[in-house]
Amino acid sequence: MTRFQLFVIAAALSFLHFHSRDVQGADEPRFKVEPQAVIEHDDGVFLWYHPRAAAIPSADPASPLAVMTLQKHLHVSDYYSGLFFMTSRDLGKTWTGPTEIPSLAWQKSADDSTIAVCDVTPGWHEPTKRLLAIGVKVLYTPKGKQIVVTPRSHEVAYAIYDPAKNEWSAWQFVELPRTEDKYFLAVAGCCQWLVEADGRLLIPIYHKGPAGEAYSSTVIRCSFDGQKMKLVEEGTPLSLDQERGVDEPSLAKVGDTFYLTLRNDLRGYVTTSKDGLHYDPIRPWTFDDGSDLGSYNTQAHWLTHGDDLYLVYTRRGANNDHIMRHRAPLFIAEVDKAKLVINRSTEQVAIPERGGEMGNFGASTITANESWITVGEGVWNDDARRRGAKGALYISRVTFR
Question: Is the model's pTM score more than 0.70?
Fold first, then answer.
């Protein structure tokens, strides 16, 4: 065999080696997940719930100040304490708190009802260098039942954190029109929201009138000057005449497209928009093989990384029939943005199931290559404890390849 023939064979083998390595690389997961328990608390009095995190930039982009808001679930359905927060300066390795925020504690009204704010999602507002915590005002009876028969008993609420002073404001409320009908109840609970390039906010909310009809969802645009949030523009309502309608919408943007995921009692829905306010007709979430995603009556949230879009969700079909509404484990998978479907082959368990439910969670970007999924483990009976649930507050680190 000539030297030239040996050279050709060697070159061909080299090409096949590197080409094979590229193909293997393309098949590798584009992300990995690493769950960890930050707190374990199950005393039968309260559970830590609704943990959601946001990053406050620092001089080192790889080491922001992480702020996590959370509340006590008081073992009555949807009954929550005032707001607490935790902070970490080492990407969640160690934490300070939970610390109660006196200005955001319960308030008593004249009729002996309790005014509270829950389902909070924090986020950084770069133009004003403030952290915003957006949630929903609720009214409770002395026994913890929500009051929904008076206008504005549910309102879009927000508080402001000044990291330079380490101070929180009191709760404030976005003034909406037509609170006697369209916005009789207006809720920004468990909803991911966005800051636009000009500093205005896009906040997905759900709302309904006094007659007890199904919820509709809408994205509103608000201005924020560091002290006050004001309504600028309302989007087109999205409605579904099925069960309780569509609620708990969450918003993300990749490129020039806005993505909205919505909760419904029977299945999850998704839609897109080019301006953030006006959306295409909603469509059920499915896998890329056309089968139903199996997520229902539970919120879903987004993670983004560059041009990639991911959904975090719960679903049926994971040996989890013993979990209420199949609310564990938590999954994450890549979204096919063109087809608006979940790429089944990319699905990973973000936080494993061990008897507790995980329906009230958060998802947030922390650094350029790391995002967090945060959740409190709902422990409602001894069966959950026998399966291993300990009332954990979980962080699942999602790092991108």
Answer: yes
